[in-house]
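Ops channel
N.P.: pipeline sanity check, posting one input/output pair.
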Protein backbone atom coordinates (compact mmCIF):
# COMPACT_ATOMS: atom_id res chain seq x y z
CA UNK A 1 0.00 0.00 0.00
CA UNK A 2 2.98 2.31 0.46
CA UNK A 3 4.15 1.90 -3.15
CA UNK A 4 3.52 4.68 -5.69
CA UNK A 5 1.39 2.46 -7.95
CA UNK A 6 -0.59 0.80 -5.13
CA UNK A 7 -4.36 0.54 -5.57
CA UNK A 8 -7.26 -0.69 -3.47
CA UNK A 9 -9.18 -2.83 -6.00
CA UNK A 10 -12.39 -3.43 -4.01
CA UNK A 11 -14.88 -0.81 -2.91
CA UNK A 12 -15.73 -0.05 0.69
CA UNK A 13 -19.48 -0.09 1.40
CA UNK A 14 -20.76 2.51 3.87
CA UNK A 15 -24.28 3.10 5.17
CA UNK A 16 -25.27 6.68 6.00
CA UNK A 17 -28.28 7.50 8.16
CA UNK A 18 -28.28 11.28 7.99
CA UNK A 19 -26.37 14.38 6.98
CA UNK A 20 -26.38 13.68 3.21
CA UNK A 21 -26.87 16.29 0.50
CA UNK A 22 -26.56 15.51 -3.21
CA UNK A 23 -26.02 18.29 -5.74
CA UNK A 24 -26.93 16.95 -9.18
CA UNK A 25 -24.90 18.28 -12.12
CA UNK A 26 -26.23 16.02 -14.88
CA UNK A 27 -28.71 13.18 -15.34
CA UNK A 28 -27.65 9.86 -16.88
CA UNK A 29 -31.06 8.14 -16.98
CA UNK A 30 -34.20 7.83 -14.88
CA UNK A 31 -32.36 6.18 -12.00
CA UNK A 32 -28.82 7.63 -12.27
CA UNK A 33 -27.32 11.07 -11.87
CA UNK A 34 -23.87 12.62 -11.68
CA UNK A 35 -23.12 15.19 -9.02
CA UNK A 36 -21.45 15.98 -5.74
CA UNK A 37 -22.35 14.17 -2.52
CA UNK A 38 -21.82 16.28 0.57
CA UNK A 39 -21.53 14.45 3.90
CA UNK A 40 -22.03 16.39 7.11
CA UNK A 41 -19.31 15.62 9.69
CA UNK A 42 -20.45 15.81 13.29
CA UNK A 43 -18.13 15.89 16.27
CA UNK A 44 -20.29 13.75 18.53
CA UNK A 45 -20.87 10.82 16.13
CA UNK A 46 -19.56 9.38 12.90
CA UNK A 47 -21.72 9.90 9.80
CA UNK A 48 -21.51 6.34 8.44
CA UNK A 49 -21.27 2.66 9.34
CA UNK A 50 -18.97 0.31 7.40
CA UNK A 51 -21.04 -2.54 5.97
CA UNK A 52 -18.22 -4.16 4.00
CA UNK A 53 -14.49 -3.43 4.00
CA UNK A 54 -13.57 -3.24 7.67
CA UNK A 55 -10.19 -4.89 7.11
CA UNK A 56 -9.41 -2.62 4.16
CA UNK A 57 -10.15 0.45 6.26
CA UNK A 58 -7.95 -0.90 9.05
CA UNK A 59 -5.11 -1.29 6.52
CA UNK A 60 -5.65 2.27 5.24
CA UNK A 61 -5.17 3.68 8.74
CA UNK A 62 -1.55 2.53 8.74
CA UNK A 63 -0.75 4.00 5.30
CA UNK A 64 1.48 7.06 5.49
CA UNK A 65 0.79 8.27 1.95
CA UNK A 66 -0.99 11.61 1.75
CA UNK A 67 -3.16 10.61 -1.21
CA UNK A 68 -4.54 7.19 -2.15
CA UNK A 69 -7.66 6.79 -4.34
CA UNK A 70 -10.31 4.66 -2.65
CA UNK A 71 -13.58 3.53 -4.24
CA UNK A 72 -16.57 3.87 -1.93
CA UNK A 73 -20.14 2.70 -2.39
CA UNK A 74 -22.57 4.51 -0.12
CA UNK A 75 -26.28 4.10 0.51
CA UNK A 76 -28.77 5.97 2.66
CA UNK A 77 -30.07 3.80 5.47
CA UNK A 78 -33.42 3.95 7.26
CA UNK A 79 -31.86 2.74 10.51
CA UNK A 80 -29.67 0.18 12.24
CA UNK A 81 -31.99 -2.73 11.33
CA UNK A 82 -31.41 -2.15 7.60
CA UNK A 83 -27.67 -1.79 8.20
CA UNK A 84 -27.51 -5.14 10.01
CA UNK A 85 -29.54 -6.73 7.21
CA UNK A 86 -27.16 -5.43 4.53
CA UNK A 87 -24.14 -6.46 6.62
CA UNK A 88 -25.38 -10.06 6.82
CA UNK A 89 -26.38 -10.25 3.15
CA UNK A 90 -23.01 -8.87 2.00
CA UNK A 91 -20.82 -10.88 4.34
CA UNK A 92 -22.67 -14.22 4.42
CA UNK A 93 -21.20 -15.01 1.00
CA UNK A 94 -17.66 -14.17 2.15
CA UNK A 95 -15.16 -15.68 4.53
CA UNK A 96 -16.43 -13.72 7.53
CA UNK A 97 -16.72 -15.81 10.73
CA UNK A 98 -20.07 -17.60 10.51
CA UNK A 99 -20.68 -17.15 14.22
CA UNK A 100 -20.61 -13.36 13.82
CA UNK A 101 -23.12 -13.44 10.96
CA UNK A 102 -25.45 -15.81 12.81
CA UNK A 103 -25.28 -13.75 16.01
CA UNK A 104 -26.61 -10.73 14.12
CA UNK A 105 -29.54 -12.62 12.58
CA UNK A 106 -32.03 -12.25 15.49
CA UNK A 107 -31.67 -8.45 15.23
CA UNK A 108 -32.75 -8.43 11.56
CA UNK A 109 -36.43 -7.80 10.92
CA UNK A 110 -36.40 -7.38 7.14
CA UNK A 111 -36.25 -9.92 4.33
CA UNK A 112 -33.47 -12.52 4.41
CA UNK A 113 -33.02 -15.76 2.41
CA UNK A 114 -35.11 -18.76 3.63
CA UNK A 115 -32.05 -20.68 4.82
CA UNK A 116 -30.95 -17.69 6.88
CA UNK A 117 -34.47 -17.30 8.30
CA UNK A 118 -34.40 -20.85 9.69
CA UNK A 119 -31.00 -20.16 11.20
CA UNK A 120 -32.28 -16.90 12.67
CA UNK A 121 -35.18 -18.72 14.35
CA UNK A 122 -32.78 -21.27 15.84
CA UNK A 123 -30.37 -18.60 17.04
CA UNK A 124 -33.15 -16.83 18.94
CA UNK A 125 -33.49 -19.94 21.12
CA UNK A 126 -29.71 -20.27 21.37
CA UNK A 127 -29.67 -16.79 22.89
CA UNK A 128 -32.40 -17.80 25.35
CA UNK A 129 -30.29 -20.78 26.43
CA UNK A 130 -27.14 -18.73 26.81
CA UNK A 131 -28.63 -15.72 28.62
CA UNK A 132 -31.29 -17.31 30.85
CA UNK A 133 -29.84 -17.74 34.34
CA UNK A 134 -32.06 -20.83 34.83
CA UNK A 135 -30.65 -22.55 31.74
CA UNK A 136 -27.98 -25.27 32.01
CA UNK A 137 -26.28 -23.52 29.08
CA UNK A 138 -26.12 -20.20 30.94
CA UNK A 139 -22.99 -18.38 29.73
CA UNK A 140 -21.60 -21.69 28.45
CA UNK A 141 -22.10 -21.06 24.71
CA UNK A 142 -19.11 -19.63 22.88
CA UNK A 143 -20.48 -16.90 20.62
CA UNK A 144 -18.43 -14.18 18.92
CA UNK A 145 -19.26 -11.65 21.63
CA UNK A 146 -18.80 -14.12 24.52
CA UNK A 147 -15.38 -15.53 23.62
CA UNK A 148 -13.73 -13.59 26.43
CA UNK A 149 -15.86 -15.40 29.06
CA UNK A 150 -14.01 -18.36 30.59
CA UNK A 151 -17.15 -20.46 31.04
CA UNK A 152 -18.18 -20.05 27.37
CA UNK A 153 -16.62 -23.23 26.01
CA UNK A 154 -19.45 -24.97 24.12
CA UNK A 155 -19.37 -24.03 20.43
CA UNK A 156 -22.39 -22.03 19.31
CA UNK A 157 -22.44 -23.89 15.98
CA UNK A 158 -22.85 -27.20 17.87
CA UNK A 159 -25.89 -25.91 19.77
CA UNK A 160 -27.24 -24.32 16.59
CA UNK A 161 -26.97 -27.66 14.74
CA UNK A 162 -28.81 -29.44 17.57
CA UNK A 163 -31.62 -26.87 17.47
CA UNK A 164 -31.95 -26.89 13.69
CA UNK A 165 -32.14 -30.70 13.61
CA UNK A 166 -34.96 -30.74 16.15
CA UNK A 167 -36.79 -27.81 14.54
CA UNK A 168 -36.79 -29.59 11.20
CA UNK A 169 -38.38 -32.91 12.15
CA UNK A 170 -37.83 -33.41 15.90
CA UNK A 171 -39.83 -32.72 19.05
CA UNK A 172 -38.89 -29.04 18.95
CA UNK A 173 -40.99 -28.57 15.80
CA UNK A 174 -44.10 -29.04 17.95
CA UNK A 175 -43.29 -26.13 20.24
CA UNK A 176 -41.12 -23.66 18.34
CA UNK A 177 -44.01 -21.26 17.64
CA UNK A 178 -44.57 -20.99 21.39
CA UNK A 179 -41.37 -19.42 22.71
CA UNK A 180 -42.25 -20.04 26.36
CA UNK A 181 -42.97 -23.76 25.91
CA UNK A 182 -40.05 -24.25 23.51
CA UNK A 183 -37.64 -22.67 26.01
CA UNK A 184 -39.15 -24.76 28.82
CA UNK A 185 -38.61 -27.94 26.77
CA UNK A 186 -34.94 -27.12 26.16
CA UNK A 187 -34.28 -26.11 29.76
CA UNK A 188 -35.98 -29.22 31.17
CA UNK A 189 -34.19 -31.70 28.93
CA UNK A 190 -30.71 -30.21 29.14
CA UNK A 191 -31.10 -29.72 32.91
CA UNK A 192 -31.74 -33.47 33.10
CA UNK A 193 -28.66 -34.10 30.95
CA UNK A 194 -26.45 -31.82 33.07
CA UNK A 195 -27.66 -33.46 36.30
CA UNK A 196 -27.38 -37.04 35.02
CA UNK A 197 -23.86 -36.55 33.64
CA UNK A 198 -22.76 -33.75 35.96
CA UNK A 199 -19.01 -34.37 35.85
CA UNK A 200 -18.88 -34.56 32.05
CA UNK A 201 -21.17 -31.54 31.68
CA UNK A 202 -18.94 -29.31 33.79
CA UNK A 203 -15.85 -30.03 31.68
CA UNK A 204 -14.82 -28.19 28.48
CA UNK A 205 -15.05 -29.98 25.08
CA UNK A 206 -11.36 -30.90 25.02
CA UNK A 207 -11.93 -33.00 28.18
CA UNK A 208 -15.52 -34.17 27.67
CA UNK A 209 -17.20 -35.80 24.71
CA UNK A 210 -20.57 -34.63 26.06
CA UNK A 211 -19.86 -30.91 25.64
CA UNK A 212 -18.06 -31.53 22.34
CA UNK A 213 -20.05 -30.89 19.15
CA UNK A 214 -20.75 -34.57 18.54
CA UNK A 215 -22.05 -34.99 22.10
CA UNK A 216 -24.36 -31.98 21.90
CA UNK A 217 -25.81 -33.03 18.55
CA UNK A 218 -26.15 -36.70 19.60
CA UNK A 219 -27.95 -35.82 22.81
CA UNK A 220 -30.22 -33.62 20.71
CA UNK A 221 -31.39 -36.72 18.87
CA UNK A 222 -32.01 -38.39 22.24
CA UNK A 223 -34.09 -35.35 23.22
CA UNK A 224 -36.28 -35.89 20.16
CA UNK A 225 -36.73 -39.62 20.87
CA UNK A 226 -37.59 -39.15 24.53
CA UNK A 227 -39.68 -36.07 23.84
CA UNK A 228 -41.96 -37.85 21.38
CA UNK A 229 -42.46 -40.61 23.92
CA UNK A 230 -43.32 -38.29 26.81
CA UNK A 231 -45.22 -35.41 25.23
CA UNK A 232 -48.93 -35.46 25.98
CA UNK A 233 -51.52 -32.99 24.61
CA UNK A 234 -49.04 -30.19 24.17
CA UNK A 235 -47.61 -30.53 27.68
CA UNK A 236 -43.86 -30.12 28.04
CA UNK A 237 -42.16 -33.08 29.80
CA UNK A 238 -40.64 -32.18 33.16
CA UNK A 239 -36.97 -32.39 34.09
CA UNK A 240 -37.70 -35.43 36.28
CA UNK A 241 -39.45 -37.22 33.41
CA UNK A 242 -36.49 -36.61 31.12
CA UNK A 243 -34.07 -37.73 33.86
CA UNK A 244 -35.92 -41.04 34.35
CA UNK A 245 -35.64 -41.78 30.63
CA UNK A 246 -31.94 -40.86 30.58
CA UNK A 247 -31.32 -43.43 33.32
CA UNK A 248 -32.22 -46.09 30.76
CA UNK A 249 -29.04 -45.11 28.93
CA UNK A 250 -27.10 -45.53 32.17
CA UNK A 251 -24.63 -43.23 33.85
CA UNK A 252 -21.56 -45.24 32.86
CA UNK A 253 -21.09 -43.64 29.45
CA UNK A 254 -17.58 -42.94 28.24
CA UNK A 255 -17.92 -39.18 28.11
CA UNK A 256 -14.55 -38.48 29.73
CA UNK A 257 -12.40 -41.55 29.02
CA UNK A 258 -12.65 -45.10 27.72
CA UNK A 259 -14.08 -46.29 24.43
CA UNK A 260 -17.46 -46.82 22.80
CA UNK A 261 -18.08 -50.52 22.08
CA UNK A 262 -20.58 -50.59 19.23
CA UNK A 263 -19.52 -54.14 18.32
CA UNK A 264 -16.47 -56.39 18.60
CA UNK A 265 -15.14 -54.85 15.39
CA UNK A 266 -16.21 -51.25 16.02
CA UNK A 267 -14.67 -49.61 19.08
CA UNK A 268 -14.22 -45.82 19.17
CA UNK A 269 -11.80 -44.30 19.83
CA UNK A 270 -9.20 -47.03 19.38
CA UNK A 271 -6.18 -46.86 21.66
Amino acid sequence: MEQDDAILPNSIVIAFQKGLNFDETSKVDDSSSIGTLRIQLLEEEKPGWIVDGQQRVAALRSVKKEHLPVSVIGFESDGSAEEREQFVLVNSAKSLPKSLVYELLPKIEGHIPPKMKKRRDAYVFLEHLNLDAESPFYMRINTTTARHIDSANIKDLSVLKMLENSMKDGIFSRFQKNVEKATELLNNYWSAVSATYEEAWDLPPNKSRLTHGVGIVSMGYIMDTIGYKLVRKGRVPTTDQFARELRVLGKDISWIDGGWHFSDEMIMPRS
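N.P.: looks fine end to end. Strands lie at 12-16, 20-29, 32-39, 48-52, 72-76, 141-142, 154-155, 260-261, 267-268.
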